[in-house]
Amino acid sequence: MTARAPGAPRAPAVPYIAASGGPFDVGYQHGKARAAALADFIGDDLCRIGRLAPAPVALAELRPGLAAYGAAIAAATPRLSEELDGLAAGAGLSRELAVLLQARREIIGYQRIPARGDCTTYASLTAGPAGSPVLAQTVDLNGDLDDQIAVLDITLSGSGRRALVLSFGGLLGYLGVNSDGLAIGLNLVLGGQWRPGLPPYLAIRHLLDNADCVAEALRILRGLPLASSRSLMLCDREQLACAEILGDEVRLVEAGDPGGAAHTNHFIDPGFAARDELNVFARNSSLQRLRACRAGLAGFAGQDAGAGVDEHFGLLSAPPVCVADTGDIRRERTVAAVVLLPAAGELHLRPGDPSRNGTESFCLRPDAEAGPAVPGPAVRGPAVPGPAVRGPAMRGSAVPGPVVPGPAVPEPSVVP
């Protein structure tokens, strides 16, 4: 395998896809807009799975599993299953390949090998601009997926809401914010038996389509048959919560700091922690990033006016929170950073290494036409925000509220 030069330049502009109508129509528009890119991605060693999985893979071997994932998606989220049919039709793919794009992470699975990072996420009801709610995170992935980023602006008929969704390689969901002021981020945590079910990325999209607040999202989440372990961070105008998922269990964890909540890649719930499969090297990285994140978040929360988008990107762009590129496609690295402002309906994105690239901003506004992202200037160090892009949205003022309670959990020590 030939190593890629670390920090190689990326395309600066992120594809923006505004899709509306019924589920099939939304999927079709997404698929048509990304048809060439998805064909290239699938042709690249089967979505690069062949370069990441522990053993070679062939589509024929995956067919029974893909059928099981497709059936689980259809049973749990029929409208997303219809959207998958539309994605396949628009991109000129088979349905099984459309399902493969959604279940790619589960197909790769997890192995207990040294890893360095897989997202750092935090949220606060008062640390955003002018003391507003904020949810921010790095996106740490292997597979060099920063070339697969897209932003979806989704309006599903009959849902009564819109959603801005960050997507990678044809995913219908990953993280995002909706027009009711609900923002959702995520972290990978490793444990339990991964099985055919609803991929957590699709679960997040389902929540953004169907929930208007944290409490409603948690209610829906508890009824979903998730395929793999994750931690979700949820924030609206009045409440935030951090939910860890292992098998069929969903547990809320303590915020850990009066300024908000932070999470990385180890389980915090004591019962789940005993079943954590994260290796010692990755656990040390996870603990270091969590401490740095909590310290930064406490600083923001201590400011009367909160922190601006550029200040949040400054935290997300600095090590150890930002995981550097080594040139090894198998290693996780920061491929994007995102700042979500739920009350304003805004998604601010730095694709690739956030310490090197400018901000592209997207927003949901009822008084403006949708438009593509406008990149901010390339920078090194603290983020320089790009201009807000006009798009449909709802604006509202931040209303501080209580953190969803959970058991008090002491932070574990670094394993030597």
Short characterization:
With 416 residues, the chain is of the alpha+beta class.
What ranges have pLDDT less than 50 throughout 5 or more consecutive residues?
Answer: 368-416
Please name the CATH architecture of the largest domain.
Answer: 4-Layer Sandwich
CATH superfamily of the largest domain: Penicillin V Acylase, Chain A
The total tally of domains equals 2
Radius of gyration: 19 Å
CATH topology name of the largest domain, in short, is: Penicillin V Acylase, Chain A
Could you tell me how far the N terminus lies from the C terminus, measured between alpha carbons in angstroms?
A: 32 Å
Helix content: 25-40%
Strand fraction band?
A: 15-25%
Number of helices: 11
Number of β-strand runs: 16
Shape: globular
Which whole number gives the mean pLDDT?
A: 86
- The CATH class label of the largest domain is Alpha Beta
Report the major sheet: 8 strands, mixed
* Lateral arrangement of strands in the main beta sheet: 1-4-5-6-7-8-9-10
Protein structure class: alpha+beta
- Can you write the helix and strand succession as a string? EHHHHHHEEEEEEHHEEEEEHHHEEEE
How would you describe this protein?
The protein has eleven helices and 16 strands. It is of the alpha+beta class and about 425 residues long. The chain folds into two domains: about 90 residues, Arc Repressor Mutant, subunit A, CATH 1.10.10; about 260 residues, Penicillin V Acylase, Chain A (4-Layer Sandwich). The strands form two sheets. Strands 1-4-5-6-7-8-9-10 form an eight-stranded mixed β-sheet, with helices on one face. Helix 1 packs parallel to helix 5, helix 4 packs across helix 5 and helix 5 crosses helix 6. The two termini are about 30 Å apart.
